[in-house]
Here is the input.
Amino acid sequence: MSVLRVEDAEAGVRTLTLDRPGALNALDRELKDVLLAALRGAARDRAVRAVVLTGAGRAFCAGQDLRERGEGAPGLAVELHERYIPIVEALARLEKPVVAAVNGVAAGAGFSLALACDLRLMSESASFISAFGRIGLVPDSGLSWFLPRLVGPARAAEIIFTTDAVDAATAERIGLVNRVVPAERCLAEAQALAARLAAGAPLALALAKRSLAYALAHDLSASLAFEADLQGVAGRSADHAEGLAAFAEKRPPRFTGE
Here is the structure.
């Protein structure tokens, strides 16, 4: 039985469901390997225009499966370099929109996975927990990079140092999620948002995601120049020509990603 469900919708949306509900979708080696493979597969598949990441049952992801931390397990740094870092980079670099449907608790590396997505919808009953400090560890899998950029350094320090749970209402108020939705609608709302994004111009969305990532690490002048270069690429695309034609003809555009 697979630990990851992969489901495609006609709109070009691929839903990846972490499927270890009995373990709160904790990340064991098998799940990490198949998740990475699925993200790389989505990147290669031109029919996939947007991705939804969620969890089965009552959790989004409880982070590392601590039952694997017994004798014979690789060192934590090794496991991060070999599995976690590639997953986070695959999410962040996937040039298609990724929407997290945070259906339940997202703890530790599960918190990091949610933050590595482009957009987050959160169930009103869900919560985020930076659980690392509870077992004598430090944040990993990108948490210390994503979190202060979303909520600021002081609030990020509070969340990490105290390990207090962040409920859905607080997460929405401080900018951790795009919106909070009823628990029974979390996945459907995320898929609807992903379908809306999938209807957009694939190349333009890919370049916009690339531009946002670049701007986080560069100053204004460099970002302005990078935007101009990307706009040159977009302006030469068939999608741009289609967008202009659709505007002139007063009809919905039919983007192909060319």
